[in-house]
Design brief:
The chain is mainly β and 127 residues long. The chain has strands at residues 3-7, 10-13, 18-25, 33-39, 46-51, 58-60, 68-73, 78-83, 92-99, 116-117, 121-126. Strands 2, 4, 5, 6, 9, 10 and 11 form a seven-stranded mixed β-sheet that branches. The protein has a four-stranded antiparallel β-sheet with strand order 1-3-8-7, with no helix packed on it.
């Protein structure tokens, strides 16, 4: 059973930056496409960013494009989400997820295609 664990959340002022990390255990990271999703209070979980198994293909939600960067280090079994120019609308619990339901050059923004999820890390952006 693959385990996914996020870290790096916290409180930041508007305009600030954070880097989230996602560690994958009991699995070979290169076998999984990875995604970051987020859920704000009272709202449904939404897609933020995804990266293919190889790392060559990335996908972003329009709301974060140009501000968030997803990356991965397969040798370290780690995935990252670098976030800059944060605003209060980015406040949410951020979840990392893994899926094998893609080919090597495919990403997915569909949470239903992801089988393994972390517990989430809270990001709060103060105005």
């Amino acid at each position: 059973q693959v385990l996914v664990a996020e870290s790096g959340g916290g409180l930041v002022q508007a305009g600030g930056s954070l880097r989230l990390s996602c560690a994958v255990f009991r699995g070979t990271l290169s076998s999984y496409a990875m995604g970051w999703f987020r859920q704000a209070p009272g709202k449904e979980r939404e897609f933020a960013a995804a990266i293919s198994r190889s790392g060559f293909i990335t996908e972003y939600a329009d709301s974060v494009k140009g501000r968030f960067t997803i990356s991965r280090d397969n040798a370290k079994n780690m995935v990252y989400l670098q976030m800059i120019s944060l605003n209060p609308e980015d406040t949410a619990v951020y979840y990392c997820a893994a899926t094998k339901r893609t080919n090597n050059v495919e990403t997915s923004n569909d949470p239903l295609r992801y089988d393994y999820w972390g517990q989430g890390t809270q990001v709060t952006v103060a105005s």
